[in-house]
Amino acid sequence: MAHADLHTHTTASDGVLTPAALIREASSLGLGAIAITDHDTTAGVEEGQFEAARRGIECVPGVELGTGDQWGDVHLLGYFVRLDHRSFHDALNDLARQRFGRMRQMVDQLNDSGVPLRIEDVVRFSGTGSAGRPHVARALVDAGHASSVADAFERYVKVGRPGYVPRPKLTPERGIALIREAGGVPVMAHPHAVYDLAASLARLVPNGLAGLETDYGEYDEAKRQAMRLVAEQWDLIPTGGSDFHAVGLKEGRVLGGPRVSLTIVDRLRAAADTIRSTTTSATLV
Ligand code: AMP
Ligand code: ZN
Ligand code: FE
Ligand code: FE
User: Ligand 1 pocket check: which of 16, 63, 153, 156 to mutate, most ligand atoms within 8 Å of Cβ?
Assistant: First the structure.
């Protein structure tokens, strides 16, 4: 029985495989479905779906929004979002612009602290994709300022270091609303990272949160079990995914690691159908 991996990144954000290469890899691992969930962009989905169709597997359109407010950060996965929805498209474009402005600011701060780097060096790694700190880190390694991405984070781009600039964030409520307006299913990613999970769920479930990523790549079986109980208590769809970015990036984030049942994909699809039937007329791009 084939399985799904519902949390992956590609070159459309800070992953290292192109969408097509990711799908080929997934297909050779025997996966039946894969969701492409790049940071603040769906730009990799179309290419992924094209390759998936050729290989007879399913590529679920997805996105990961890194939201936050005074109560802390919440990463939201959006499944089956419509790629052609106007307000969603506009919101992602705004985020892309803000991400790029942030890259310029990071480069300026690094220069001010005596580290020569140009925005072009960062763009060589981000391409037209969703730009983030990992691209600055790769550029720093390439320029010889750091020995590895981890070293670059440690010395230059983590909180408190000279290159750090906070990322502009939507609130979780706004993120949930955007995903739902685009006909997608909002799911809380890696819930162990949330500061006060019970308080977050108490606020976000009434706002339309529909799922919880119980089977996260980095979680051991005990954590997954605990999260499945939480999902049950709140009547949330239990999802799972590796958060694969690159081979060897972080322990546990192995493509196809969490063996998520394909019935979960069907539940997400059904939830998306319900959300679409209750959302007022969509304006398309
Ligand atoms: P950003 O959203 O641009 O602030 O960057 C966050 C991204 O950086 C996430 O995808 C993390 O996986 C990655 N990241 C955070 N800390 C580290 C680290 N120490 N080493 C490598 N990647 C990291
Ligand atoms: Zn990432
Ligand atoms: Fe995340
Ligand atoms: Fe992720």
Answer: 153
